[in-house]
Amino acid sequence: xxxxxxxxxxxxxxxxxxxxxxxxxxxxxxxxxxxxxxxxxxxxxxxxxxxxxxxxxxxxxxxxxxxxxxxxxxxxxxxxxxxxxxxxxxxxxxxxxxxxxxxxxxxxxxxxxxxxxxxxxxxxxxxxxxxxxxxxxxxxxxxxxxxxxxx
Length: 151
Ligand code: DQA
What we know:
By secondary structure, this protein is α/β, with parallel strands linked by helices. It has helices spanning 20-23, 28-42, 54-69, 88-97, 135-150, and strands at 3-8, 45-50, 73-79, 101-105, 127-130. Helix 4 links the parallel strand 3 and strand 4. The longest helix is centred in the middle third of the chain and has 16 residues, at 54-69.
């Protein structure tokens, strides 16, 4: 069974309690459960990870780039959190490792502060899901699976 990485960046471990008016009350453990259920339907094994550290995220992007090259994974759904708006390193990692990435944001970043409107990740993403709440994780998995099938 091919794998799919669901990757979460800084502060997403606080999902459910952090700014619930923006991010909702669903916890990251609930999101993991939703992703595993959707993965089951799509015939994909979900690898679910979260880190508050940029270098750790870079390492995991490299790891899964190699998994995709080896034909064992279809890519990643990635919520980079605030690193979206700051990280040239994650941009370069995704590009360098040729990892197919669906960039995901729970909130509609374009309806928020100006500094959230720019993304270092979007230019190297295959697709982007923004503003659907945690349902976005399911939509992103479906989209990535569809893109992988099209080849
Ligand atoms: C976020 C949006 C980012 O601007 C923010 O820094 C996050 C979460 C989202 O899912 O809406 O941490 O990526």
